[in-house]
Structure prediction request, 484 residues.
Amino acid sequence: MKRKIAIIGSGFSSLSAACYLSQMGHQVTVFEKNSTFGGRARQLKKDGFVFDIGPSWYWMPDVFEKFFGDFGKKPSDYYTLERLDPGYQVFYGKNESVNIGADMEAIYKAFETVEKGSAKKLKKFIERAQDNYGIAIDKLVYRPGVSPLELVTVETIQKLRYFFTNIKREVLKDFKNPKLQQILQFPVLFLGAKPENTPAFYNFMNFADFGLGTWHPKKGMYSVVEGIVALAKELGVKLVANANVEKIEVKNGTASGIWVDGKKIEAEVVLSGADYHHSETLLPKKYRMYSEDYWDKKTFAPSSLLFYIGLDTKVKNLSHHSLFFDVDFDAHAAAIYDQPKWPENPLFYVNLPSITDDSMAPKGKEVCFILIPLAPGLEDTAAWREKYYHIVMDRMEHITGQSLKDHVCLKESFCVNDFISEYNSYKGNAYGMANTLLQTAFLRPKLKSNKVENLFFTGQLTVPGPGVPPALISGKLVAGLIEG
Prediction:
């Protein structure tokens, strides 16, 4: 039965759901509060510099291939990919770094150089991670989180212990060198939770990292958004920008439409891909599934302080992606999750896409994106931003052995306050809700409202979790529930 569906927000999960629902024959309209589509995956163009101001890592290419394949398409129909080599570089100090190459043999060799005997252990570790990845992708993440039985398969029963131990314990059991321990724990810290609070089963992200590699879409991550928007339009989806949704209309316990800039838009189904907490504030309290106390008690993935910097010189001694782990890893994690505060000595990440892609900066210049993970809800002021700008730039200068601050010709920042104002993000979180044991699968906020008929949710606060590939999967899952 063809239905009129209104979708709130245009992030990856919303765009994914819109494509599937339109393919199913529904009349789909996407409403985006900002002037461009893509949700947090937006773009900044200024003075010839092109910045991805949100996601900048292209991991799990198989998920993108499955998504486009569902419509008889390929990613290459919409954008061009290049596998990075090295995928990224990890710095522990000046002239002290480890490259994560595009070839597993090169990675084994890099590990062995740091810790004798670690190559053999890493091979076994990645074999387990690959096995877990296959189970996660084939058996778990494409399930809608409506029942605990979704987790019960022959394969997951065999892997039960990996749900009740954690990533940190598994890593420290095999690897004694702190540098290697940090490399194997970083995907979790930057994208979700403390390694000691994350089930060891999630080590499948290490296979996504080492085995499947790190890729760069030509012209940046926003080219992926543009590709999915193009696909959505081909499928008949209508997209409306500068459309601020103020209210979800409920009539006799059933969603009947939305209010956009003072105007009622009729709909038979409402799907929100906006921040889940914010989406429920668009409802009268009696129709909300989750209280403020519920949200306050949840473990959220980090927020971030982001800098978008244009340099009038090329940067030496860094890769496309670089991680700066030249300070205490555990102390920064504690500042995010244990006693939230601005970290004294932050870990940070630097993205220099113009090293690979000369379309992203004027000739002889460099695009520089810097990310510092932070606890959500921190006080965000110009003074804090400026202080941390100098901290990270000074460390970059020291490690690269070159002057950078004198070459800055463009500087903008984005932090907690901006995540709230631009994306209605709960406490300014950047990545959604952490994948801890008690926030996995059916224990996450639901895709379908149990208080309002024909009201659904999608995105990083629901299943399967944070990140761009999970967002695409979330859109497919909720489309299946709506159709069902």
Observations:
- The chain is about 35% helix and 20% strand.
- The radius of gyration is 22 Å.
- Residues 118-140 form the longest helix (23 residues).
- The longest strand covers residues 303-311.
